[in-house]
Design goal:
By secondary structure, the chain is α/β, with parallel strands linked by helices. It has helices at residues 21-30, 52-67, 85-92, 106-115, 157-169, 187-191, 210-219, 243-252, 258-266, 269-282, and strands at residues 5-8, 12-16, 39-42, 73-77, 96-101, 120-122, 144-149, 174-177, 193-198, 223-226, 238-240. The chain has two domains: 5-122, 3-Layer(aba) Sandwich (Rossmann fold), CATH 3.40.50; 137-263, 3-Layer(aba) Sandwich (Rossmann fold).
């Protein structure tokens, strides 16, 4: 079970689990200022009501955070998986003025606005200089065609199916990196791979894994991500629909060097606003 960490920055209180430390760094750099004073941000999934026995202490801390504010607070949950009576009650009985999400979840935007009357904002990742680009990524000898960063288990059938097909029908090599809580710890492994492969855990996912790709782009890696309903990283990643598409990318041997482009698009406030407006125009569900 991941440990929920609650930390007070200068102006923002953040609740997060281990593997979202990179997103906390992004928040420190862009949002920990007086404009967001007394804002509360939750990163990753909040515990479900079904986990009551294990998460009761966390719930008490979450309630305390929300109830002991001096001003109204925003509420940001990057992956809002659950929507049950516990969370509806929590939202309705506190001074939450709006909800933000870093994951594209149109069904929650509709419910949030229609059922709770709270504005719902879509706020994708931003570049942070606190995550340093890795030097000489492309000079390191490559011994593997691509690596998958993410868990491989029964809960990720799409990943297993695709990797089985590549292994059975093609001669390209890959490795799995399941330690995703600390990207810095697996740099040496990733550096020996030509491309980083991102595959959603579930077939029903409609965007790439934004948290993971965000950090990979900040570090300077070239990412090949399965094409989803909306591309959050236009021009910064290779998208593929079929195994043949993926194989063709590897055969061409081209690389995207996304760090500077991503920084230009999402670090400067004006450029970031333009980037957001472009994504909003792509899909009418994004408010």
């Amino acid at each position: 079970m991941d440990k929920l960490i609650i930390e007070k920055l200068n102006h923002i209180t953040v609740g997060y689990v281990d593997w979202t430390k990179s997103v906390k760094l992004m928040i420190e750099e862009h949002y920990d200022n007086e404009n967001y004073d007394n804002t509360i941000i939750f990163l990753n999934r909040l515990p479900s009501i079904e986990d009551n026995i294990y998460y009761t202490p966390y719930k008490k801390r979450i309630y305390y955070m929300l109830e002991h504010k001096t001003t109204d607070a925003d509420y940001w949950n990057s992956i809002y998986y659950v929507w049950d009576n516990y969370y509806i009650d929590l939202i309705q009985n506190t001074n939450i003025t709006e909800m933000w999400t870093m994951d594209y979840r149109p069904q929650f935007a509709i419910r949030c606005e229609q059922e709770l009357g709270i504005p719902f904002k879509y706020v994708p990742m931003r570049y942070t200089s606190l995550i340093k680009p890795i030097e000489n990524i492309y000079l390191t000898p490559k011994t593997v065609d691509f690596c998958l960063v993410g868990l491989l288990s029964k809960s990720s059938p799409q990943r297993i199916d695709i990797l089985n097909e590549v292994e059975t029908n093609h001669s390209f090599s890959f490795k799995g990196i399941t330690q995703v809580k600390d990207m810095q710890a697996v740099i040496s492994e990733m550096n020996t791979s030509r491309y980083i492969l991102d595959i959603p855990r579930e077939y029903t996912t409609i965007t790439q894994n934004q948290v993971r790709i965000f950090e990979l782009l900040c570090m300077g890696y070239t990412v090949c991500a399965k094409k989803m309903y909306i591309n959050i990283f236009p021009g910064l990643i290779y998208e593929w629909e079929t195994i043949d598409d993926l194989i063709n990318i590897v055969k061409k041997g081209e690389y995207l060097h996304p760090t500077e482009a991503y920084k230009e698009m999402t670090y400067n406030d004006n450029a970031y606003e333009e980037y957001i407006n472009n994504l909003i125009n792509i899909d009418s569900y994004v408010k």
